[in-house]
Every structure is written in structure tokens, then in C-alpha cells.
Design goal:
Low-confidence stretches: none
Order of helices and strands: EEEEEEEEE
Helix content: under 10%
Distance between the termini: 27 Å
CATH architecture: Sandwich
Number of domains: 1
Shape: globular
Strand content: 35-45%
Largest sheet: 5 strands, mixed
Mean pLDDT: 89
Length: 96
């Protein structure tokens, strides 16, 4: 699968499976069957830092191979790898 670059141009970005019947339209839609409709979100704090929040997804989220507790805010840094669902990998890249 080709890389996809998603600009972080708002305070938070929802990641999950799209579901038109339930009116779920994630900012980062993923077709991974192991992903929840509202799986996780990336958030930007007032100071500009980034974080990952798992939204109590069924299959959880990992940051650099470590399970993220549901509802907790995990700080993100350049080069971090977020694992969601069965096979979705998101690499954090920061641009000046």
C-alpha cells in the first residue's frame, strides 16, 4: 500500500472506518477490518505538541509497540509509529 501524507490542519483528527449509515466520517478513513469506526484521534495541544488518544477501540492502539490505555493521551514525537487495527501503521513526521 502506498504512503499517504495527511496534513494536521485542525485541533484533532479522527482515525477509523467510515460508516455512512451511522454517519461516521473520519478525517483519516481506514479500511482495516480490525479498526473501530471511531478508533483513535490525534490531537494538538495549545503548545503545539501532538498526542494520540485511543477511543476505547475494540482492538486497541499501540505507540512504538506499546499498548496505549483507552482514553489516555500519549505524546507523539517525530519518527514514532502508531499501530491501529490489524495492519494499519502511521509514522509521525513533523514538518517545520
Amino acid at each position: 500500500m502506498a504512503d499517504l501524507e495527511v496534513p494536521f490542519d485542525r485541533p484533532e483528527l479522527l482515525v477509523g472506518r467510515r460508516d455512512d449509515l451511522r454517519d461516521v466520517h473520519p478525517d483519516i478513513p481506514v479500511t482495516d477490518p480490525g479498526m473501530s469506526r471511531r478508533h483513535a484521534k490525534f490531537v494538538r495541544a495549545v503548545d503545539g505538541s501532538l498526542a494520540l488518544v485511543d477511543l476505547a477501540s475494540t482492538n486497541g492502539s499501540k505507540l512504538n509497540g506499546v499498548e496505549v490505555a483507552a482514553g489516555s493521551r500519549s505524546a507523539l514525537h517525530a519518527g514514532d509509529e502508531v499501530t491501529l487495527g490489524r495492519w494499519t501503521r502511521i509514522r509521525v513526521t513533523l514538518r517545520p
